[in-house]
């Protein structure tokens, strides 16, 4: 029985570890400035934890086999433990865990402690059951007012976010269902929700932030390669949660300007 | 067996009951109440498991019409998910290890005739039972069971118009949880008082089996955590029905302005997780205590580092109240507080690692007997390591950005809090069944059950980590809408197949349990040659546990292979103390 346990525990360990090492399934290719740092720390954590995982399971299987009860075996060792060993592994795990934590703190700080750069592109992201809307301030650089009583989700577009068209600042606001952003320029997202909590999740940008009714959360990220990136909702928001998705199109600054100008022209 | 005569005032608090109702229904006997909790959890675990089977079927065959149930709609999927989580967390993981085995064996292991407050004990079971009935009834009201998940985040859980199931079903869900909290609070008081005041002579705190320490610390956690959840539940009920706005700001649902303003959705999350994180330890601590016990009994060795184990559990309990914010790194909470919560969470990994080292240290140099309780205990250690190792990923806010609310989290908590705890329940069942029912369970069926479950649960939950790394979001009823999720469907299929096989394997257990009650081999009083007091009683134990006597304790709980002793174990109440050998 000890041998069977050893074989099964080792097999489970090595098969599980194989798929991690072979990266059969892995983080999607990073496409933001922050991705490299996050992925690097992910890999570090994962190598260290992987070693602990394999070592503990291998020992567990080994001990189960080696110390199985058999007629010829020596009697069990009468020992209540070893204080030196307890102190050694307490200190080692403390260094490992707290060390990992400190290593990752600077990445978190650069993502979440500093405000967006002055030249960042502002996009207001609104989540509602079950769609994402994106608003650009237009040439005046100002978002027009929105009013809860004007919100009409079934109408889509400007009405869905309750845009007050009588506000002069709202005249040039562009509201879309697909998010466009220029490459290599920081995007400041202003995250809002009208009904329940959603979560704005762009896997390739290593970006996730809950969108909470009553709060306007300012966050930022910088796309570094052009392409189409899927947006998901990561917080359970109701029966249509699984189909609440969108697309982020990262294009050159030139294409972005052209696209925005065309949307402005559509409005007039 | 060493006992002393009872003084008159020490006689059992209540006489042996007469009649079926007082004996088996409204019983004051902690053993009967323990069995009542156990069988409540047993029905709950099969209900919860059946719900998860329906979920897994829906995920890969979305349009299949099931007999009696019909086609599962997206909102039905979310109701299944909510009820699966709630039933498993409250009525299985909190109920069986503590209410079930704790009730039955805490008094016996410390040498008491019953719990401190038998009437309170009876009440706590029946309130819990009522909570369970109320929870199940949510399936049968207009709109069905709620879809807001077991975490019930408002505004989704606070507004009737937010989705199907958010009407009467959601009210019943909240009421059920509030009832559960009341039961858990009464039970916690009882456990704490019993442990502190009812120990037999010689049973100092540091001679208690680690199971008793685990139940004691779990009860303290319960006392501090369930009160907060109860209050949060009442506030949610008021928001839902009395027009208050604790958790709901100004919102527009389906184009209609709701009659709320100024509330904070994050307040609920703080209150919920202040309960919710200690709850994880409420589920796992009893299993830790039990597996420490079993690893020692079946290795025929004293536990490695008894005191370190006690201090580790105490520090897990203490730190467990300072880490709730790690569930909220992405919630919109201040990013500065994430620092504090993260470092506390990483720190809690240290006592968890100490426990693992000590389990390995106990096996080292032992003479391991592979009876079924030991197989499940070793399985527990393996799962605890595998589920624990993903903790330091999620505890770091930076890594939580890609992983939060993905299948990585689902895999993590199912391994460590779900399956590892359930391995504890299985191990406890195989270990104590002979004492509870006077017969042995079939060892060969138990082994088949172990292999099915051990390999099966890894096959289900390990791939969930891969899914999560690839960005697969939780709580999606379909993976058809996003291209990157469609690519992961083959892995989802594998998980469903593994789940079907593993679930089928659980019927081996169910059969073994009921078959052995009637046809199992007669058990001796101490079939495992263990040292703790429950193995000194008659089998099953009489109404007052020790048959008119109360034991006196001379030894620690883990005296195995003592050099010079006549057998390889020295009972706790053996007056020829270990020091004499």
What does this protein look like?
The complex is a heterodimer of chains A (268) and B (581). Chain A has helices at residues 2-21, 35-66, 83-112, 157-160, 253-267; strands spanning 121-128, 131-136, 174-176, 179-182, 187-193, 198-202, 207-211, 217-221, 227-233, 245-251. By secondary structure, chain A is an alpha+beta fold. Chain A has two domains: 2-69 and 82-112, no CATH class; 121-267, Cupredoxins -  blue copper proteins (Immunoglobulin-like, Sandwich). Chain A has a five-stranded mixed sheet. Chain A has a five-stranded mixed sheet with strand order 4-10-9-6-7, with helices on one face. With 581 residues, chain B is an all-alpha fold. Chain B has helices at 20-25, 30-60, 74-93, 95-110, 118-137, 168-197, 210-241, 265-299, 306-319, 335-363, 372-389, 391-394, 397-403, 407-437, 443-469, 483-486, 489-519, and strands at 3-5, 65-66, 70-71, 252-253, 256-257, 549-551. In chain B, helix 7 runs antiparallel to helix 8 (265-299) and helix 11 (372-389) runs parallel beside helix 15 (443-469). Chain B starts with a strand and ends in a 30-residue tail after the last strand. Mean pLDDT of chain B is 94; it is low at 1-11. Chains A and B meet through helix 1, helix 2, helix 3, strand 7 and strand 9 of A and helix 3, strand 4, helix 8, helix 10 and helix 11 of B.
């Amino acid at each position: 029985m000890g041998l069977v346990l050893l074989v099964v525990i080792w097999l489970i360990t090595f098969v599980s570890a194989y798929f991690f090492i072979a990266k059969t399934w892995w983080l999607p290719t990073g496409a933001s400035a922050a991705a490299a740092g996050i992925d690097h720390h992910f890999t570090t954590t994962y190598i260290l934890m992987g070693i602990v995982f394999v070592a503990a399971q291998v020992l567990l299987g080994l001990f189960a086999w080696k110390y199985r009860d058999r007629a010829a075996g020596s009697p069990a060792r009468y020992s209540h433990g070893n204080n030196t060993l307890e102190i050694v592994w307490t200190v080692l795990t403390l260094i490992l865990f707290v060390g990992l934590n400190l290593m990752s703190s600077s990445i978190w700080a650069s993502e979440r402690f500093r405000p967006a750069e002055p030249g960042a592109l502002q996009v207001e992201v609104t989540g509602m059951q079950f769609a994402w809307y994106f608003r650009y301030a237009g040439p005046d650089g100002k978002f027009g007012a929105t009013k809860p009583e004007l919100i009409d989700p079934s109408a889509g577009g400007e009405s869905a976010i309750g845009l007050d068209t009588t506000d002069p600042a709202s005249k040039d606001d562009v509201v879309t269902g697909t998010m466009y952003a220029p490459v290599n320029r920081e995007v400041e997202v202003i995250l809002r929700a009208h009904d329940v909590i959603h979560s704005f999740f762009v896997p390739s940008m290593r970006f996730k932030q809950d969108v909470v009714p009553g709060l306007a959360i300012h966050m930022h990220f910088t796309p570094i390669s052009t392409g189409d990136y899927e947006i998901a909702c990561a917080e359970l928001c109701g029966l249509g949660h699984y189909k609440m998705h969108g697309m982020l199109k990262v294009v050159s600054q030139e294409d972005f300007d052209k696209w925005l100008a065309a949307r402005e022209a559509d409005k007039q | 067996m060493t006992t002393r005569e009872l003084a008159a005032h020490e006689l059992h608090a209540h006489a042996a009951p007469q009649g079926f109702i007082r004996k088996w229904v409204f019983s004051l006997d902690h053993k009967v109440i323990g069995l009542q909790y156990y069988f409540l959890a047993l029905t709950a675990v099969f209900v919860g498991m059946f719900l998860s089977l329906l979920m897994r079927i829906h995920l890969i065959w979305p349009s299949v019409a099931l007999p009696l149930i019909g086609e599962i709609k997206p909102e039905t999927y979310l109701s299944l998910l909510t009820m699966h989580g709630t039933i498993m967390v409250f009525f299985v993981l909190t109920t069986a290890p503590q209410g079930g085995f704790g009730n039955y064996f805490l008094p016996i292991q410390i040498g008491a005739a019953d719990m401190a407050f038998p009437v309170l004990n009876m009440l706590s079971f029946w309130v819990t039972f009522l909570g369970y009935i109320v929870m199940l009834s949510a399936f049968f009201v207009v709109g069905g069971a709620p879809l807001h998940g077991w975490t019930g985040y408002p505004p989704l859980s606070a507004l009737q118009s937010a989705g199907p199931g958010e009407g009467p079903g959601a009210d019943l869900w909240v009421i059920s949880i509030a009832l559960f909290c009341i039961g858990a609070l009464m039970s916690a008081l009882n456990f704490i008082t019993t442990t502190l005041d009812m120990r037999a002579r010689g049973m100092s705190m540091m001679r208690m089996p680690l199971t008793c320490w685990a139940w004691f610390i779990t009860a303290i956690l319960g006392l501090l955590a369930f009160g907060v959840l109860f209050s949060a539940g009442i506030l949610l009920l008021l928001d839902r029905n009395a027009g208050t706005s604790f958790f709901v700001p100004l919102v527009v649902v389906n184009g209609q302005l709701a009659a709320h303003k100024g509330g904070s959705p994050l307040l609920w999350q703080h209150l919920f997780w202040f309960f919710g994180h200690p709850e994880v330890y409420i589920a796992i601590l009893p299993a830790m205590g039990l597996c420490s016990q079993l690893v020692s009994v079946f290795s025929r060795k004293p536990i490695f580092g008894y005191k370190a184990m006690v201090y580790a559990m105490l520090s897990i309990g203490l730190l467990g109240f300072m880490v709730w914010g790690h569930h909220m790194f992405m919630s919109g909470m201040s990013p500065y507080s994430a620092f504090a919560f993260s470092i506390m969470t990483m720190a809690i990994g240290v006592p968890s690692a100490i426990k693992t080292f000590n389990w390995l240290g106990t096996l080292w140099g032992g003479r391991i007997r592979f009876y079924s309780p030991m197989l499940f205990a070793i399985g527990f250690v393996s799962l605890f390591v595998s589920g624990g190792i993903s903790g330091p990923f999620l505890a770091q806010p930076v890594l939580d950005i890609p992983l939060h609310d993905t299948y990585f989290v689902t895999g993590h908590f199912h391994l460590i809090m779900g399956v590892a705890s359930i391995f504890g329940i299985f191990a406890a069942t195989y270990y104590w069944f002979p004492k509870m029912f006077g017969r042995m369970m079939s060892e060969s069926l138990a082994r088949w059950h172990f292999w099915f479950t051990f390999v099966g649960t890894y096959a289900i939950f390990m791939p969930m980590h891969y899914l999560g790394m690839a960005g697969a979001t939780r709580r999606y009823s379909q993976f058809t809408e996003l291209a990157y999720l469609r690519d992961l469907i083959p892995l989802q299929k594998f998980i469903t197949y593994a789940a079907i096989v593993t679930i089928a394997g659980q019927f081996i257990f169910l059969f073994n349990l009921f078959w052995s009650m009637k046809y199992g081999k007669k058990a001796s009083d101490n079939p495992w040659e263990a040292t703790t007091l429950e193995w000194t009683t008659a089998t099953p134990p009489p109404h007052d546990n020790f048959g008119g006597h109360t034991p006196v304790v001379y030894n620690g709980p883990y005296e195995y292979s003592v050099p010079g002793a006549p057998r390889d174990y020295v009972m706790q109440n053996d007056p020829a103390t270990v020091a004499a050998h």
